[in-house]
Amino acid sequence: MNVAMNAASNALLAKAWSKLSRIGSAIADQALLSATNFLAGVLLIRHAGDTQYGYYVLATNAVLLLITLQNAFFGAPLINRLQPMAPEQQGRFVAGLNREQLRLLLAGFCCCLGGAAAARLAGLIKGEAFAVAAAFSLMALAMLGREFFRMVMLAHRHIGALLRTDLFFVAVFLGGTALCLNSGAAGTAALLAMAGGAAVAGGLLFAMARRQGFVARSGDAAVLRQIASVGCWAATGGAIHWIYGQGYSYLIAGSLGVGAVAAVSATRLLMMPLNLVSAGVAQFMLPTASGWLHREGAATTLRRLCLSGGAMCLVALAYFAVVWQLRDWIFTSLLHKGADGAYAGRDTLFCLWAGIFGLMVVRDQLIFLPVLRERFRVLAGLSCACACIAVALSYPAMQRWGAGGALAGMLTGEALNIFGIALLALREARVGMEPAAQAEAA
After folding, report:
1. Could you tell me which of 330, 347, 358, 348 has the C-alpha nearest to residue 405?
2. I want to staple 91 with a disulfide (CB 3.0 to 4.6 A). Which of 216, 291, 376, 392 is the partner?
3. Residues of the chain where predicted confidence (pLDDT) is lower than 50
4. Global pTM value
5. Which positions ≥6 away from 258 have C-beta within 8 Å?
């Protein structure tokens, strides 16, 4: 009996350690990519001209939007459909989806490159802009291809594969960028280096997925049509959320000037480690929550998501307390911005960001249930309504209270958003309980 108990205890410990190692790998991967993007930006700011750096920022922001749309369109529908399938069916489904989305990517690449060439021949853009457009086309194609196989590996919870391949991406990207810093087209070269790194990492991910049987040699037909109805709404919601999350800086710049944007961005920078942890946990939690939903039902899934949201909230509170105590040292010694007078209302801005990020880490857990239930139309409508309310409140609040007013509007929108998501999750849990209750009564 003791032997059986020890074996069961060891199995539980091994399972817990496996989950912790996956979460750690996801966070480490996010940290690696965030640090890489930060370092590349610093190198280009120091060595590239303003025009080249501006082109680089515009191109990378455009690719970030495309990746957001791709992840929203494919992510949850892909994971949700793979969960109940047999391994052979999964491989054919992914292969068919990859074939159909690759056709769309190649068509988009040709259209982008052809449009840039036509504009160059017509004299609408200069040679430098055409080179950037060509580099952007290659980078977008490679980055979106790599991101698709990242989603496939995440669906099968192979987090370690992402970290290993991203090391190659970082090496090629940063190495190529560093080699071309003294050229007159450093920004364009950085885009090409990013494209090369994404192509290498994407090729390695494809080989791993093929070797594991996650991608079959022949795929099903018309699989893109199967997820299009929910994928379009998911992409719409993702686009609205991306605009909502990034639009505040443009609103502040247009109303209060660039100096106010610097103050808000500097205080937001203190929250980025928390955002990093939340993003890493979210990568692991989506396939995990999908497994809970298919095995144990919506009510159990919601309870566990509430527990994980509460744990993330406690982590956020502890982080806020530490940063609050160290804020003077951070701004004076680390950021070289002096005392509170360097940024008017610095502490107020920090508290507002703390509230926004505190709600965000809880929302990122609760949203998994309606996402896995594919309630993308409702989520898109909710995001749009909350974004409109936030913008409507931010503008008059800025006129009265300055940059803090914009964050107050964002905080209000975030609070309404999490309230709506909580109601939607509760409804999904009740709906999931009805069939079980009816079966028990029968």
Report:
1. 348
2. 216
3. 5, 13, 17, 258, 339-341, 434-442
4. 0.62
5. none
